[in-house]
């Protein structure tokens, strides 16, 4: 597993993140840290999207995010309620 030193949000993810309720932002930040420290952490439920080098994970039951790992960077592609968080909207 690569050592990740930073988390970056794409412009799309940043826009969605700023609209999230504060309690969801706190959960998301916690999950980003868990993903860096322990990628197999049970509450993340990380899955690879079929046929792509993109992964999805849970913030909680209702919110998801997609990401890729580039070099030493965890790049968040999308975040939000289920479909939006998976980049479907």
TrEMBL record:
The lineage of its organism: Bacteria, Candidatus Gottesmaniibacteriota. SUPFAM superfamilies: RelE-like. This is Cytotoxin. It comes from Candidatus Gottesmanbacteria bacterium RIFCSPHIGHO2_02_FULL_40_13. InterPro entries: RelE/ParE_toxin_dom_sf (IPR035093). It comes from the Bacteria.
């Amino acid at each position: 597993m690569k050592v990740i030193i930073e988390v970056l949000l794409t412009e799309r993810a940043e826009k969605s993140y700023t609209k999230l309720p504060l309690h969801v932002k706190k959960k998301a930040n916690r999950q980003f840290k868990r993903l860096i420290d322990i990628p197999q952490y049970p509450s993340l439920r990380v899955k690879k999207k079929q046929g792509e080098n993109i992964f999805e994970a849970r913030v909680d039951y209702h919110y998801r995010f997609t990401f890729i790992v580039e070099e030493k960077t965890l790049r968040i592609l999308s975040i939000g309620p289920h479909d939006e968080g998976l980049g479907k909207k």
